Amino acid sequence: MENQEFSKILKDINLSLFKVISKQNKALGIELTPIQGTIILGIANHKEALCQKEIEEFVSCNKSTLSSILDTMEKRGLIKRKTSDWDTRKKIILLTEKSKKFIKQIEKDRIKTDSLLMQGISLEEKELLIKNLNQILHNLERMM
């Protein structure tokens, strides 16, 4: 397989997954992009308050892109920004009651999607696929 073909397959998988997750979120009655759902779950699953820099790391996007995403989420009432008690230069990101209502359903949909993605793939094949994808991710990170 050509590298171009592999890159195209990864791009197509990413785009298709984006569409599926967006459709699931819309079925919940909310307009929520996959990255917004990832941010909500990331904040919800973290034991302490998160600042924007920490969110940048787990969603793997740059500061200006994340700032724009957070602005949109704040305007839609999904998050609140608050000045940190321990460092007034930092803003911590908090979930609102509105976004907290969606956490369990988003998690449930993600588990269902992962299960459907792996249909027809044996346990050994899944383990090898995950190992190889992690290696590809590591290779990409070294290139950055």
Keywords:
mainly alpha, 68% helix, three-stranded antiparallel β-sheet, globular
Q: Decide which structural class fits the backbone.
A: mainly alpha
Distance between the termini: 24 Å
Tally of strands: 3
Number of helices: 7
Q: What is the radius of gyration?
A: 17 Å
Question: In total, how many domains does the architecture comprise?
Answer: 1
CATH topology: Arc Repressor Mutant, subunit A
Question: What CATH first level would be assigned?
Answer: Mainly Alpha
Main sheet overview: 3 strands, antiparallel
The main sheet orders its strands as: 1-3-2
Percent helix, as a range, is: 55-70%
Given as residue ranges, the uncertain stretches (5+ residues, pLDDT < 50) are none
Globally, the shape reads globular
Q: What's the CATH H-level homologous superfamily? A: Winged helix-like DNA-binding domain superfamily/Winged helix DNA-binding domain
Give, in order, the helices and strands: HHEHHEEHHH
CATH architecture: Orthogonal Bundle
Overall residue-averaged pLDDT value:
89
The proportion of strand residues reads 5-15%
How would you describe what is shown here?
The chain has 144 residues and is mainly α. Helices cover 68% and strands 8% of the residues. It is built from seven helices and three strands; from the N terminus they run ααβααββααα. Strand 2 (79-83) and strand 3 form a beta hairpin. The model has no long low-confidence stretch (mean pLDDT 89).
